[in-house]
Model the fold of this input.
Amino acid sequence: MDLVKLNVIELLRLQAKATEELKRRNIVRTNNNPLGDYTEWLVAKQIKLTLVKNSKAGYDAISDAGVTFQIKGRRITPSNQSRQLSAIRNYDSKDFDWLLAVIFDQNFNILNAYLVPHEVIGEYCPHRDHVNGRVVVMSGPIVNDPRVMEMSDQLRVNKFVQKTHDISAPIDTAKLTSTIISKNKSLTKTSIREHAKQWLKLNCPSDVSNKLRVSKYYPEKEIWFFTFPASYFNSKKHGFLNVMLQYKNKPEQFYFLKVPFSYFRENQSDFNIRTTGDKFDLHISAKKRTWLICERSNNIGFSQFEQ
Done:
């Protein structure tokens, strides 16, 4: 066999078969190497990033605009379907802006690729002492969070992995990267909140003192997204929660829901509470047929609280 004549994917598949045999002989314990290096190389090539050489930098690649990425890959096989990534250490240092996670099948075909904002990891992935880091599993609630973006098609690049194997001329993803970054940073959480406060002062000044929660509009799923603490179910929680939903095309305008805390308590069993028990998520629908119904609940609606 002339290895020089094999393309990248063929070499990876050959390496995988060799590793599986070594594992059967109890020589090695994992099937994944050299997946990490390949994933970083693939992502950097297709999204036009620069890989960093300093392993202590806390990120793997950086864009021309200075946006930092940690890149992780996971290969699943018939004997191991886990989508758990290697641990993210020093998370609180905020060394990277985005996690880009790529899930491969046993033949190194891309199944999924996700672009995850740094703050989302902290909400879903607790610190685990035994690995001294945050354990991220790319399935379940985290991949359904509207802030997480699917990137499979962009990384496949007309399915070059399965077909042409030609990566000498990747698609122009500069515009794609710019769109992703601007879409998520064009209106920060702080500015959205300030807009909401100003709207309340002008339109409902008597309600300004209530606790405030604000969501931007997520056009991809036509929802407003919230993560609330389970303390909202507490019997000692009284009064109202101001829930502000940003207009689709008018970022300084809002729908205003004045929700009594008792409503959460009375319907606790119908909300989608996380397995950790400390939070619950709301996907409030902006669709006409299900207007202001929480899609992550047993048909709990909020239209009656619209002011």
Observations:
- The chain has two domains: 3-185, 189-305.
- The longest strand covers residues 68-75.
